[in-house]
């Protein structure tokens, strides 16, 4: 275990993982991947309350997140620093949720907000890190590895670092909340008309991505938004009452797709809760004894290359 992590494990950038975290925190919102920031894509998820941005951390970057950003040391909302490694995912979520007006949360989150009122960002970060409830919620789908290299004197290698931040509207401006920065970064006022704050956020995020080499896939973007199922189900009932078969069929299809997605999330999360090292070891040993390990490894490498090429072709951002 990393001494600097204090028991906080790495979190996978996956909408099912983040939606489950929101559920644990008593928040009835959902998280979805964003593969594009175009108007049509964003409109399907409105209202969007915050954008979670995962990026490859590079030293000597503009600390303000772009030329348009300025530190707001008098930020009027909630902001906490990240004080231990691996906690940036949950910290980003908390920095977002606790700035959404009139959001209903579970009692633990309400207690946290009350307890940290008046604290500075560093002390708030320490309070979050010390919360057993939050650490357990964070680690629920990120179990510690069963493989340890301690005592083997294996030289440590430097790994690429990835970091979560959030963008959201607060008091008429778009802010970037990054727990590793001294204060929230204000990126300017947003319009209340048209696409609203997401139009400004698009400019900010696209400008940030443009600072990386062309074709880089070292990003992932997700949206925290209202749960669409209750809305769809209400419209379905209205369409059925009105005898509109076309709209009924269309809404039923959309609901089915949403339910299928959530069933997939539930299945994937169930796999994350288990440690499969024993199974993998047994299968690898059996393949080696049968003389098939080499060919199976080659097939896996080929499929991995095909997946990478498909991701590049589709323009989808890589998850870490």
Automatic annotation (TrEMBL):
GO terms for cellular component: cytoplasm
Active-site residues (renumbered): 88 (nucleophile), 163 (proton donor)
Record family assignment: Belongs to the peptidase C12 family.
Known catalytic reactions: Thiol-dependent hydrolysis of ester, thioester, amide, peptide and isopeptide bonds formed by the C-terminal Gly of ubiquitin (a 76-residue protein attached to proteins as an intracellular targeting signal)
GO biological process: protein deubiquitination; ubiquitin-dependent protein catabolic process
Stated name of the protein: Ubiquitin carboxyl-terminal hydrolase
Sorted UniProt keywords: Hydrolase, Protease, Thiol protease, Ubl conjugation pathway
Xref: PANTHER family: UBIQUITIN CARBOXYL-TERMINAL HYDROLASE (PTHR10589), UBIQUITIN CARBOXYL-TERMINAL HYDROLASE ISOZYME L5 (PTHR10589:SF16)
Domain UCH catalytic, residue spans: 7-226
MF annotations from Gene Ontology: cysteine-type deubiquitinase activity
Lineage, uppermost ranks: Eukaryota, Fungi, Dikarya, Basidiomycota, Agaricomycotina
């Amino acid at each position: 275990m990393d001494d600097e992590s204090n028991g906080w494990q790495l979190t996978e950038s996956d909408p099912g993982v983040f939606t489950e975290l929101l559920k644990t925190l008593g928040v009835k919102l959902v998280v979805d991947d964003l593969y594009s920031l175009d108007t049509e894509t964003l409109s399907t998820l409105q209202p969007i309350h915050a954008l979670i941005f995962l990026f490859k951390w590079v030293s000597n970057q503009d600390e303000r997140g772009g030329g348009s950003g300025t530190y707001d040391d008098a930020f009027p909302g909630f902001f906490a620093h990240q004080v231990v490694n691996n906690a940036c995912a949950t910290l980003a979520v908390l920095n977002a949720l606790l700035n959404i007006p009139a959001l209903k949360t579970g009692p633990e989150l309400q207690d946290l907000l009350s307890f940290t009122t008046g604290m500075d960002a560093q002390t708030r970060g320490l309070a979050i890190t010390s919360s057993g409830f939050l650490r357990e919620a964070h680690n629920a789908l990120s179990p510690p590895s069963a493989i340890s290299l301690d005592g083997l004197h294996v030289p440590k290698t430097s790994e690429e670092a990835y970091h979560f931040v959030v963008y959201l509207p607060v008091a008429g401006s778009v802010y970037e909340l990054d727990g590793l920065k001294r204060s929230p970064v204000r990126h300017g006022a947003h319009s209340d008309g048209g696409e609203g704050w997401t139009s400004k956020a698009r400019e900010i995020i696209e400008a940030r991505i443009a600072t990386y080499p062309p074709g880089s896939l070292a990003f992932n973007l997700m949206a925290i938004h209202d749960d669409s199922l209750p809305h769809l189900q209400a419209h379905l009932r209205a369409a059925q009452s009105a005898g509109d078969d076309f709209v009924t069929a269309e809404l039923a299809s959309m609901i089915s797709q949403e339910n299928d997605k959530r069933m997939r999330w539930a299945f994937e999360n169930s796999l994350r809760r288990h440690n499969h090292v024993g199974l993998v070891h047994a299968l690898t040993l059996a393949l080696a004894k049968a003389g098939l390990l080499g060919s199976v490894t080659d097939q896996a490498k080929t499929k991995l290359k095909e997946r990478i090429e498909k991701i590049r072709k589709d323009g989808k951002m890589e998850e870490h």
